[in-house]
Each structure stands twice: as C-alpha cells, then as structure tokens.
Amino acid sequence: MAILHRIFSRRTLAYVTGGTAAVLGGGYWYLNSGPAYPVPTKTTRRPPPPWSPPSRAEMLKELKASGKVTTFKSGSPPSEDQEFDLLIVGGGATGAGCAVDAASRGLRVALVERDDFGAGTSSKSTKLVHGGVRYLQKAVFELDYEQYKLVNEALHERRIFLQTAPYLSNMLPIMLPIYKYWQVPYYWAGCKMYDILAGKENMETSYLMTKGKALETFPMLKSNGLVGALVYYDGQHNDSRMNIALVMTAVKLGAVVTNYCEVTQLHKDGQGKLNGARVKDNLTGEEWNVRAKGIINATGPFTDSLLTLDNPAHQPIVQPSSGIHITLPNYYSPRKMGLLDPATSDGRVIFFLPWQGNTIAGTTDTPARVTRDPQASEDDIRWVLEEVRSYLSPDIKVRRGDVLSAWSGLRPLVRNPGAEKTEGLVRNHMIHVSESGLLTIAGGKWTTYRAMAEETIDQAVKTFGLDGRVKSGCVTDTVRLVGSDAWSRNMFIGLIQTYGLETEVAKHLSDNYGDRAWTVCSLAEPTGERWPLHGRRLISSYPFIDAEVRYAVRHEYALTAIDVLARRTRLSFLNATAAFEALPTVVDIMADELGWSYRERRRQIKAAVKFLGTMGLPATLMVEDNHPEPIPKGWMERVERGVWRAGKSALVLVGLTKEKADRLDAFGPGRSMFEGGELAALRHTFATRTTKNGDGVEKVGTEEILELLKDVPGYSEVSKKELDYVLDEAGFKDGRVNFDEFIEICGNLKEVSFTPSSVTNRMTIPVEKSGGGV
Ligand SMILES: Cc1cc2nc3c(=O)[nH]c(=O)nc-3n(C[C@H](O)[C@H](O)[C@H](O)COP(=O)(O)OP(=O)(O)OC[C@H]3O[C@@H](n4cnc5c(N)ncnc54)[C@H](O)[C@@H]3O)c2cc1C
Ligand SMILES: *[C@@H]1O[C@H](CO)[C@@H](O)[C@H](O)[C@H]1NC(C)=O
Ligand SMILES: *[C@@H]1O[C@H](CO)[C@@H](O)[C@H](O)[C@H]1NC(C)=O
Ligand SMILES: CC(=O)N[C@H]1CO[C@H](CO)[C@@H](O)[C@@H]1O
Ligand SMILES: CC(=O)N[C@H]1CO[C@H](CO)[C@@H](O)[C@@H]1O
C-alpha cells in the first residue's frame, strides 16, 4: 500500500509528467529541427504563367538610347529616364547578384558582360555552397574573431541560397577521412562547432563513423590506416545555371543586360567624375556610349585592368590563384557522398564530390597569372590524379584516360590597396571607391554573392546619391530566383504526365530549370516514337535534350555553341568527348534559331572544338580532319559542301594534302579505339620483336617498347616520360608483356596527350589568404 502510495504520489506523477512532456517536446523539436525545403508558393502541377524575356536586340536598343541624350538637341535637357542609375560591368556571380539587388530596389540598371554570363570564374568553381569548415580551424583553435565572423556570415548566406534557389541547390554530406586517432576528437569538435555556429540555419548535424561504416558508404576509400570518418553537411549548386538564373531574375525585375558587350572606355564629366562608358558589341564590332549615374566594376580577376583604366598609376590589388578540377566517371565516388581532406601533406585542400551524375575532383590554390581562358595543364591534371590515387583503394587504377573533362578557375585574392604592403591579402571581399567614383567589388565567394551585392548596392546608393531613386532597402533575402516559385521536388512527375518524357530527362529539366522546365518542354518536338513522346536527347548517354538548345537561344541569350555546351547545359564540364559528339546537333538547332549560314556553322564548330580542347578533349579529336561537319540545309548548301569536298579531294589527288584518315572505328581489346590499319601495324611491329617465353606466349620486354614504337606511324613522338607514366599507371613496372597488354599500353598512350609540359613550382597559399573557394 505504502509502495503504491509512493508510486502514485504527487511528486512521482509530477516527475513522470514532466519527463514525458520533455521527451515529447524534445522529440517534436528533433523531428522538426531538420532543414525544411521551402514550400512552393504556387501549384506545381500546372505550368506557371508564360514569360518571355526581351530579346537581345531590344536590350541593345535601350542601352544605346541612354547614350544618345548626351548630345543636347534644340536646347532641351537630356531626359532623365533614359539615363541608367547604375552600369554594372561584368556578368559573373558578383555582377549578376548586384543587378538583382539594384533592380529589386527599383533602380534602373544596365549590366554588360564582355563574354558570356558566367564565362569567367563563376562557371568554374567547386560548386559548393559552404561556410568553410577549413576556416573554422583558425577561428576556433586560434581564436581568430575575423575568421569566425566569416564562417558565421557564410553559414547564414548558405541558408538563404538554398531558399532563394531551391531547385539549383541541394545538401550534400561530405566525409572527412581520418587516419590518426588523435585527429578524431579534433575533427569532431570542429564539426560540432560548425553545427553550433549554424544554429537554426544548420542542415543536418555532423556525425562520426566507424571505419567499417565509412568503408561501407565509400567502398573506394583506401582502408589501410583508416581510423574512422566524420560526415558533415554543406550545400552544392549548379554554378553557371545559378548565374543565368540570377541574370534572368534581374531581367524580370527590369534590368537591361547583354552578353558579348565589352566596356572599352570610361567617361568622366567636367569634375572628373565617371558618368558613363563606351561599350562595344563583340558580335558586330559596333560601339556606342552608355550613360549612368554610377559605375560598378564587378570584373572578378580582371579587376586590375579596369582600375588601371581608371588610374594608370594604380597598384595591383588582385593576387590571382587558380583551382584545378577534373571530372571523373561516377564509379569513383558514391552517388550521394563527397570526400574532402582539409589538410593534405602540402596544406592544400583536395576534394572529391559527386556532381550531376559524375565525380569532380580537384584542389585549390595554385598561384597563377590572370589570363582570359585559364587552362588546366597536363601537369596539374596528373598531380590531381596522383593525389586522388592516394585516397583510393590500391586495387583501383585511376588513369589519365578516365579524365572526362578538366578546367581551371581563377580566384581573385584581394589585397587591400589601403593597407600596408606587408599586411598581405584581405580575407574576404573588398569594396573600393576610386577618386573618380568607380565602385569596385572583388573577391568573396559564390556562397556570399548576395551579401556582397547588398553591401555593394548600399555603398552605391550612398556614393552616387541614389537615395531618391530607390523604392526600398535590400530585399534579396526574400526574392526567389526565376524558376523557383512553382517548383517542387515532385514537379517532374507532372512534366512526365504532360509531355511523356523519360524520367531521367524530366528530373534533369526540373533540377536545372525549375518551373521554367514547362517552357523548355513546350519547345520540344515530338520524337515520333512510342516512348518517350518528347525530348530527343542530344547524345544518348546524357539527359540533355534538343529543346534545351532552343530554350537557351530564345530565353537565355545563348549566342554561340559554347554558351550552350558549357553554361546553359553543363555537358562540356561533364564529359568533353560527349560535348564534342553533341556539337553538330547543337550547331544545327542553333542555326535554325539564329539563321547561321553554312560558313558560320563551320566557324562555330571550329571555335567550340578549340574550347573543348582547353577542357581536356583528347588530342586525337582536336585534329582538324576529325572535326565534325555541319549538317547541310537545303540544296544550296549541299552544293556548297559538294564543291568544298571536291576541292579537297582534288588537293588529295595532286598530292597537296593527305586523304582524311578513316574515323576512329576499329576497336582494340578493352576500350581503346584505333584507326583502321593501326592495329595491324602494331601487330606487325610486335611480331618482329617477340621471343617465346617458357610458357609459349609471345612477349616483349617493357624496355623494348619505346624502340619498337619508333617505327609505327603516329607513335614516333612518344617520349620515355610518357611511356613510363603509362607503364606505371597500368601497373607494369618491369618485366615482359604479351600482345594484349602491349595493345593496352598503346591505347593508354593515345589517351595521354603528348603535350610538352613544364614542371611548375608548387607554392602554397595559406588558408587565411585563400579567398573565396573551398
Ligand atoms: C577554383 C575555384 C573554386 C571555387 N569554389 C567555390 C566554391 O566551391 N564555393 C564558393 O562559394 N565559391 C567558390 N569559388 C569562388 C567563386 O567562384 C568566385 O568568388 C566567384 O565566381 C567570383 O565571381 P565574379 O563575378 O567576381 O567573377 P567572374 O565570374 O570572373 O566574373 C567577372 C566577369 O567580368 C567580365 N568582364 C571582365 N572585363 C570586362 C569588361 N571590360 N567588360 C565587360 N565584362 C567584363 C568577365 O568576362 C567575367 O565574366 C571558387 C573559386 C575558384 C577559383
Ligand atoms: C570579339 O572578341 C574576341 C575575343 O577577344 C575577338 O577576337 C574578336 O575580334 C571580337 N569581335 C569583334 C567583332 O570585335
Ligand atoms: C563520355 O562520352 C563519350 C562519348 O559519348 C562516351 O563514349 C563515354 O562513355 C562517356 N564517359 C562516361 C564515363 O560517361
Ligand atoms: C548541386 C547540384 O548538382 N544540383 C543539381 C544540378 O543538376 C542535377 C541534374 O542535372 C541535379 O541532380 C542536382 O541536384
Ligand atoms: C570601362 C572599362 O574600363 N572597362 C574595363 C574593365 O576591365 C577590363 C579588364 O579586362 C578592361 O578590358 C575594360 O576595358
């Protein structure tokens, strides 16, 4: 009785009730604590209201109109509304972000980009939306308040990023492999700090994994010496699609934007203040003036040349460094888990991330010179491969031939011109107003583009006296980008039901265009087959379809084949060879839209192949004879092509040029491709040198191979260095090889492009100076 009494006493009841409430409350909090994907604001089962942006011609007209009024006619003052409030130079992440911000405040904005939108660094980033775990180490363990603020701001921006562009970004778990026991508490504490800092902006909490679990989720990882792993969460996005989405959002808000228009001169008024610029259309060569109350230079790594235009005595403020990325086939990483080592032997970061179905691997922070088309050198590519190999299980041979695409991005590391020289580089972005009133914004990172834009436009309003012109303060943390409103994760089902697309294609469209995917689909021509009803693929292995090309031209200002292959779709970043194969189709559709002549199509193909060469297209495809030919339209062009071909054969006949080699068609053992006759030549050479082994198999010594290949056409240039590299890669260190192995070696030699390489001095840039990237 007494016991029962005790059990049901008020006190116990109070404890039990309190405990239950706490558990329920905690459980409720836990269940709701995860990141909630923002809900769509409109129905996602039907297409949103159609919207067509103004054409490039209309944009140009408006730009020109602003300059005309500089000449006073019949004494009337220049009309106010023709002049722009702001002219933004540069259409990368920073420029586009500023345009969205300014336009959403009600300013009249023009943005000019000399290449394509995002053609600079903004399409060549690592594609992470991150707070920077790497900087955290400094913040926490060295109590560096500046670093702490940086991480905190980035984490805040990360959440806004995922909300304003939900279809272009997603969460990605990233694994930090741990090879030493003492690192476990260190990394764990670091990641927990990251979670705590993120607070309610966190995505998912980080967790520790045992060695066994780590190998289960990432079987390709080297198990030798592995102690465990830590998993934390960051965001990932499609960078150049994001860039285009920003540009289109600015257009929707009323900004005037053009690509392929370069600012060639800055104009000053009587008091030496900037009041306009001279702009040159790169397609026609035409030049005109644009008037604006203020000019913002958002030219990224090219900032210095703009500042020099403004003041010839100016000291460089940008110290560029480059980051190299390579794309590998998807079997090198799990589909939904990245890998990152924040501290390699030489202090750089190496990462390994799934992206659009393939894997991107790379490193950051190699000092570089500013060039317009930075290229990943052969040495850089091999260095990344070397690093990657050291993380993977020894039974995996990552080969040079696996590299599907490679690129290099320039990172503008900013030096503060005001600071003493010795103070070095500023860590984040910098806003600088020159004497003549040129507002420069440089540095920062993709993740914080919005915060940078907010700060820049705040400054612009102050500097250029635009207080009377703005309608509101900054609202970009709630402005959702074009394509977001009527998008949901399940929108692709509606697309399939309406248009009869393949599932993979529908998902791809929904993830890249958001609710604009409806418009893309409306441009698709029926395939004429039973299934799919719409959506003819540009190339069978990737879900990019014909309608995307039309959409890119009509709705996203794509003007060259490269725009479509590299930035509207991401094919050239995923697989340069696939982009090469899709090229004739892309050019054909664009010709339809833009009215290109046969000659123009040829020119486009040539330029695109050259570009793909910088993205790691195999050297054999770069040869002019292997370029694809445009598809002729109508009889005029057939005649033209006939004449052109006849001329070529005539040259062959009289012996001035050689017959075009057969296309690469004969397959060797394995996956190497050989030209007709090549295999026979190799077999012949092989036979001349072999000696029978004890077991009756014909073999040659590896040391003889170089000699042997000297006589084979196409292989005479192979150097010992290349051969050693290939032998090493394939695991033939020494000894003798049989015919199949010999052919494998020859095949690999073909994949390693024979570029002369210079050994660069690998210098490292310390974390706190590494600017934007990972
Ligand atoms: C390797 C690497 C990896 C990175 N990874 C990440 C990452 O994972 N996450 C992240 O948040 N950030 C990352 N960053 C940082 C991020 O990519 C950059 O901070 C951002 O893209 C910079 O954008 P921007 O607009 O300033 O420069 P850019 O994109 O280079 O844009 C400048 C534009 O100005 C144009 N221009 C130049 N001169 C003129 C002229 N006279 N007239 C008209 N136009 C002109 C150029 O053509 C160019 O398009 C990375 C950077 C690098 C280099
Ligand atoms: C456009 O720019 C390219 C690259 O800078 C240049 O080679 C070309 O001449 C320019 N075209 C015109 C018409 O100015
Ligand atoms: C890359 O594209 C080429 C050409 O379409 C294709 O043969 C190859 O299989 C692709 N590679 C991968 C890994 O998808
Ligand atoms: C971060 C990222 O890669 N986002 C999306 C980009 O597009 C592909 C499809 O093409 C999606 O799978 C990704 O989620
Ligand atoms: C208006 C102006 O001076 N534009 C400059 C911007 O920066 C680039 C740097 O490459 C210069 O070429 C432009 O002339």
UniProtKB/TrEMBL annotation:
Enzyme type, top EC level: oxidoreductase
Cellular location(s): Mitochondrion
Domain named Alpha-glycerophosphate oxidase C-terminal: residues: 474-600
Assigned EC number: 1.1.5.3
Coiled-coil residue spans: none
Transit peptide is among the record's keywords: yes
SUPFAM superfamilies: EF-hand, FAD-linked reductases, C-terminal domain, FAD/NAD(P)-binding domain
Catalyzed reaction equations: a quinone + sn-glycerol 3-phosphate = dihydroxyacetone phosphate + a quinol
Key words of the record: Calcium, FAD, Flavoprotein, Membrane, Metal-binding, Mitochondrion, Oxidoreductase, Repeat, Transit peptide, Transmembrane, Transmembrane helix
GO terms of molecular function: glycerol-3-phosphate dehydrogenase (quinone) activity; metal ion binding
Domain of life: Eukaryota
Cofactor entry: FAD
Transmembrane annotation, as ranges: 12-31
GO cellular component: mitochondrion
Domain (FAD dependent oxidoreductase): residue spans on this chain: 85-450
One GO process term, biological-process aspect: glycerol-3-phosphate metabolic process
Family membership noted in the UniProt record: Belongs to the FAD-dependent glycerol-3-phosphate dehydrogenase family.
PANTHER family cross-referenced by the UniProt entry: GLYCEROL-3-PHOSPHATE DEHYDROGENASE, GLYCEROL-3-PHOSPHATE DEHYDROGENASE, MITOCHONDRIAL
Protein name, as recorded: Glycerol-3-phosphate dehydrogenase
Source organism of this protein record: Cyclocybe aegerita (Black poplar mushroom)
